[in-house]
Amino acid sequence: MMKFKPNQTRTYDREGYKKRAACLCFRSEREDEVLLVSSSRYPDQWIVPGGGMEPEEEPGGAAVREVYEEAGVKGKLGRLLGIFENQDRKHRTYVYVLTVTEILEDWEDSVNIGRKREWFKVEDAIKVLQCHKPVHAEYLEKLKLSCSPTNGNSGVPPLPDNNSLYVTSAQTSGLPSTVR
Fold first, then answer.
1. Which are the catalytic amino acids?
2. pLDDT means per 10 residues in the chain (180 residues)?
3. What share of the chain is helix, strand, coil (3-state, %, to 5)?
4. Which domains occur in the chain, in start order?
């Protein structure tokens, strides 16, 4: 069953990219198990929970709202991992780290569309995502490359207004993603 959102207003940045936000939801601050959810479009495929930002919404707030709706979890919002660009779909997604502190038994998308969630070891999640959501796999690859988790959840850095955190998708070329 597809997700239907009446009155949804899409927001775009100055270059015409849709603004999105997502969280890598971890079971603990060790960041070794990540929560994935079933896709609303393809229920047998796993994705990182996230979605479009609403007008006037801050990226961190949008990310927390999206994981609450899609994964039924609440937690401690940590660092901004990066802003990932999907050139094929013209999206830019702010991806945060979130340490899960509460798991709801029933949540909006489980009730409305039968969405499922499952914990994966990071390496397994990368393999699962590489097949059909390579940009989502890049989130976890970037996490592995970033400094080791010495509890980077203590605060969220200010958002840049330059392109220093953009990660471009190399989906079509098959080359590793580059930071520009």
1. 69
2. 56 94 97 96 95 95 97 98 93 97 96 96 97 94 73 42 42 34
3. 25, 30, 45
4. 18-147 (3.90.79.10)
